[in-house]
Specification:
280 residues; alpha/beta; Spore Coat Polysaccharide Biosynthesis Protein SpsA, Chain A; nine-stranded mixed beta sheet; two-stranded antiparallel ribbon; 11 strands; 20% strand; globular
């Protein structure tokens, strides 16, 4: 049994060739494009992919459309991002998984190796972080608008292999543009968390559920005083999680994410001031 592949794209002519080459073993590759103005669609079609188009309004809506409205040739769908590469060992594990149709799982998570300046950020990227990448479409739904949460109607498994993530391939300017948008959405999510959710203290101590522990840490971080948040983020990643062992790339990466943390905190403050009718 084979696997269908789904890739969502927007201006991905730099990343898409390597991503497509790494999944060329699939006989059903689908690209859902958000009306890219570069060569993304041309590259996808030249690689034999089926191409669909939909205007992007939110990641949640885009992914819901992709799994509900597109017909795939196989029951299992692999959903890498365009800047992710699938190594041969992960390919073999994926094909092995789907060769057992009676298995109870409806989705599988995989760890990601983050690369920056040619180096795997073993420590500063908070490895291991788990992402759902193999799904049965009919058993999946989505929550939240940023850092999308996949909800599975059934058991979720964990894979041994890794995805290679090249999030800086399009350059630092593109990275900053993307994270400027993300931090605005993160700030809105932070406001909702502060209003409606308590810290999951049990989740903070959970060793068996890394996804829950990461969410609990994030909820706690939103409650820190504004001046402390970026510094705490940097200390946690660079010192406590040993990002210092990743050399100069690790230091730079930790500084970048600490800067994003400061942007989130400032935008939360901005939203509060707007609500109170105060100047920005």
């Amino acid at each position: 049994m084979s696997i269908s592949v789904l890739i969502l794209t927007l201006h991905e002519e730099i990343n898409l060739p390597a991503c497509l080459a790494s999944v060329a073993w699939s006989d059903d590759i689908v690209v859902l494009d958000s009306y890219s103005s570069d060569r993304t669609v041309e590259i996808a079609r030249n690689a034999g992919a089926r191409v669909y188009k939909r205007r992007f309004d939110s990641e949640r809506n885009q992914r819901t459309f992709s799994l509900r409205q597109i017909r795939f040739n196989h029951p299992w769908v692999y959903i890498p991002d365009a800047d992710e590469i699938t190594p041969p060992e992960l390919r073999d594990e994926l094909l092995s998984i789907v060769s057992t149709p009676e298995r109870p799982q409806v989705a599988f998570r995989v760890r990601r190796k983050e690369f920056f300046m040619g180096r795997w950020l073993r420590y500063s990227s908070l490895y291991p972080t788990w992402f759902v990448r193999l799904v049965r479409p009919e058993a999946i739904s989505f929550e939240r608008e940023i850092n999308l949460r996949i909800v599975a109607n059934g058991p979720v498994g964990f894979l041994d292999s890794h995805i290679i993530h090249q999030s800086f391939n399009k350059g630092l300017e593109a990275w900053f543009d993307k994270h400027n948008r993300y931090t605005s959405l993160e700030a809105l999510e932070g406001l909702e968390i502060l209003k409606n959710r308590r810290v999951d203290w049990d989740g903070l101590l959970s060793l068996s559920d890394p996804v829950r522990r990461r969410a609990a840490l994030k909820d706690l971080g939103f409650r820190l005083p504004l001046p402390l948040r970026p510094s705490c983020r940097f200390v946690y990643m660079y010192i406590i999680r040993l990002g210092c062992l990743d050399g100069w790339p690790g230091y730079t990466y930790c500084r970048l994410l600490a800067a994003c943390e400061y942007m989130i905190a400032l935008k939360i403050l901005e939203f509060h001031r707007r609500d109170e009718g105060l100047p920005i």
